[in-house]
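Q: Hi! First time asking for a complex rather than a single chain. Here are the components, and I think there are two in total. Is that enough to go on?
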Amino acid sequence: MTQSSTTPMTHEKTSQGRASQNTKVTKEQAPVYSRADRKARNANLRGRFGLALYVVLLLLPIYWLVNMSFKTNTEILSGLSFFPADFTLENYAKIFSDSTWYMGYVNSIFYVSMNMVISLLVALPAAYAFSRYKFIGDKHMFFWLLSNRMAPPAVFLLPFFQLYSSVGLFDTHIAVALAHCIFTVPLAVWILEGFMSGVPREIDETAYIDGYSFPKFFVRIFIPLIRSGIGVTAFFCFMFSWVELLLARTLTSVEAKPIAAIMTRTVSASGMDWGLLAAAGVLTIIPGMLVIYFVRNHVAKGFALGRV
Amino acid sequence: MQTKVENNKAWFLVMPVFLIVAFSAIIPLMTVVNYSVQDIFDPYTRYFVGTEWFKQVMLDSRLHEALLRQFIYSFTILAIEVPLGICVALMMPTKGRGASVALILVAIPLLIPWNVVGTIWQIFGRADIGLFGAFMSYIGVDYNYASNPADAWLTVVLMDVWHWTPLIALLCYSGLRAIPEVYYQAARIDQASRWAVFRHIQLPKLANVLVIGMLLRFMDSFMIYTEPFVLTGGGPGSSTTFLSQSLVQQAIGQFDLGPAAAFSLVYFLIILLVCWVFYTTIMNMQKDK
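A: Yes, that's all I need. Here is the structure of the assembled complex.
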């Protein structure tokens, strides 16, 4: 009883004391703060303005592409205008009604998803090994993986073509997915390793003492713990596979041709089909914009290979 | 850093990665090595020529020019992108809805397929149908990226700045967010100037992410291919032909397999060297933490 009655009192006292101290401090510092505050607010406004300017410049080329995709070719070539005078959906209609066009998007999404799944499946255990164990050649292995992320695709272009032709995988989705693994797998291992190192070792040890086997622990406990890391990794595999063209174009001809390669068809003897090209370009930007929303808070960590 | 347990069974966990990457990396690499020491006329007629291709490549003036252009290009874009990226990161709001909107908007160029980036600038830079080209001729500059080497360079650099500054900005932004609020309070009490806050609080905290960002940018710009290929096709002349493109021209265009393979190996060694510097820097950074 006595205890319960005294504790609130002391609490009150200390909080009062703190409050009065706080007001005192702010009163003393008040003139200094307000000047600094005003300065800070001005700087803030300048910052907002600068940022707005930057974003506008950033979006201008994209806006121009979108603008063009709603114009007819005659309007595009007849002069500049900020809004389509003769608004048309014809360019998009052409893409969605022609299977050689829209299959490009299907192909791209197909091999990108395949690549994402393969990368995650092989990278998860490897990243765990790198983050938890020391083993013979671990550092060399890690460096070798990284060096593949840095290998210029141009170096491997022709050998890739020959390799995949000789094993009968040329012009299949799996060929592109496997080829893209050369840079998405190292990336996935790096990002996941960064996230996994943030999970304390004690969790593993406790689980093992509790009688969990490794696979059971990994799937039931560990993977839920690094959910966000897996999300970010998936995003990055998606992204880097989606934006790459050189390998995808080299390894396909008809069946698995990516949209990026089909876009070159807009060049014909009668000149460029600008409107169609713009519409196809706009459609390639959309998937990226849809998925980035989910990982917006972790994008930077992914770009830093899990090392911010 | 936590101490790691020594356990060689961990290799079983790494095995799948090793196999899948080795399939796409080691076999093609060995093919390249194989080509680089042979003279190939057709699949059945080939001669061993030893280091001849390497000698030829090392003395090739086209390669030297491409390498020089490559270095100038990589350093130019770094010199622009790093300061600009830091400025953008400093201006981005840290809290609330504005923060995520800004984050998503700034990240958009990174998600666009590289050939579409080329296409966007190809259209944007044309004087007849593009806004930028039209603007340049409006202010009286005779601008044509397809015929004037200086304009082609300007456009290629501008495109890369547009495309990749967001990467530096995002990295710096997340670095800035890791600075505890108390640092800023202390600086306010000391009445530190904006510059002093940047120089002594923000910049040291950004060092890590900046190293990562700069090295990533250096290496990626070193193997740039798609964007300039779509935009200028390496021209006018060969004024914007960088290393990757001159390699592809040689291997696929002229089908000079031997020299192209030797070129590939030299190119790969340069990249490997830069990569090693990158790796050791990051590893040392982690040790210091």
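A: Chain A touches chain B through 96 residues (CB under 8 Å). Let me know if you'd like any chain examined more closely.
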